Amino acid sequence: MHRIRAAVAALLTTALCLTLSPAVVLAQEHRGPADCAAALDCTAADIDLMSMDERLAFVRAMSSGPAAEIVPGYLPRWRNIEGIITFFRDREMGAPGTWVSHVDAGIVEGIERGIALALGRAGGTFGNPGSQLWADYLTALRDGDLRARSTHDRAWSVAEQASTEHGVLLAERVHGVSPTGVEQRFFAYSEFYRWMLRNRPAPLDLVAPPVGPGEQPQIAFHDWFTDVTNATPSYRGAVLAYDLAEFDAPGGALSLVALMHAYARELADDHLTYLAAS
Fold first, then answer.
1. Which pLDDT score, from 0 to 100, does residue 51 have?
2. What's the angle, vertex CA 76, arms to CA 167 and CA 97, rounded to 5?
3. Which residues are CB-neighbours of 120 under 8 A, at least 6 positions away?
4. Total count of domains within the chain
5. Residue 201 phi, psi (nearest 5)
6. End-to-end alpha-carbon separation of the chain, Å?
7. Average pLDDT of 196-210?
């Protein structure tokens, strides 16, 4: 009887996996960043097998390769995600099979399939609801419909939110992996970050030229912190968020100082570069 129950449970899990994605969820081999960036058909299960260094290379290869084919003069739009992946690498988080790994794999898969859909590639969404939203984001960016910063940030955030929620679903319902208390509190940071993107104060659009993030001096801290083309704020923000998630008050204080120092330094560098080009 025990064996029968185990077999039934295995069949139900497999059925759920296949329902969530038209591709086979169980990875058959370890695929590298270059292969995945060229084919744009790696599943979340394939990405779960990647190290954080490989995922970093994968996101960068997608940005410089197929995403740049969609948007002429493309400025990388997932540098903030690179910052988070770099943080995971530096903290040795996100080993294959962990909650962090599965959630991150869902996010990266959504970006990958969004690029594929925007390019007209076959294969569909892989069951990831963020895929079509990322495709819509890229085509709108190409067509010049996201020039207002608030409009851009909302479209970006909605796509990433859907991909993230899919990653949580994969981790917890498909693979049965739950976050630790620290990971759950850290995750709340990312939820707040996306909320900030979706709710950018309207007055900021009145003082910033309508050319999108990363393309003019980021005067307000909110603009700098939510600039998706910059890896520094997300990395420094993640360090601070993790210290707070661990209830490490001294570490949190130092991380806050480091975050503000990075803001001041980049603000000065940004203005100097902007003035030199004017």
1. 98
2. 25
3. none
4. 1
5. -55, 130
6. 77
7. 72
Look up residue 183 and give its two tokens. Answer: 């990971």
For residues 215 and 227, give the distance between their C-alpha atoms in angstroms, rounded to a whole number: 10
CB 227 within 8 Å of CB 157:
no
In three-state form (DSSP H/G/I as H, E/B as E, the rest C), the secondary structure along 200-223 is CCHHHHHHCCCCCCCCCCCCCHHH
How many C-beta neighbours within 10 Å does residue 91 have?
13
pLDDT at site 267:
60
Structure tokens at 253: 């204080």
Average pLDDT, the chain: 83
Structural contact between residues 21 and 126, judged by C-beta atoms closer than 8 angstroms? yes
Does residue 149 sit within a domain? yes
What single-letter amino acid sits at 134? Answer: W
Could you give the 3-state DSSP secondary structure of residue 115? helix
CB 36 within 8 A of CB 144: no
Task: State pTM to two decimals.
Answer: 0.82
Q: Examine residue 6 and state whether it is found in any structural domain, yes or no.
A: no
Q: Is residue 2 part of a domain?
A: no
Which token pair is 62?
Answer: 């997608």
- pLDDT score recorded for residue 273: 46
Q: Give the range of the structural domain holding residue 146, as residue numbers without chain letter.
A: 42-277
Write down the number of H helices and E strands in the chain.
Answer: 14, 0
157 pLDDT above the threshold of 80: yes
Return the beta strands (E) in the chain as ranges.
Answer: none
Comparing 8 with 69, the larger pLDDT belongs to 69
* pLDDT over 90, % of the chain: 59
Assess if residue 27 is contained within a domain.
no
How confident is the model over 118-132, as pLDDT tens digits?
A: 999 999 999 999 999
- In Å, what is the CA distance from 220 to each residue of 216, 227, 267? 11, 11, 9
- What is the residue type of 245? A
Place of tokens 């001041």: 264
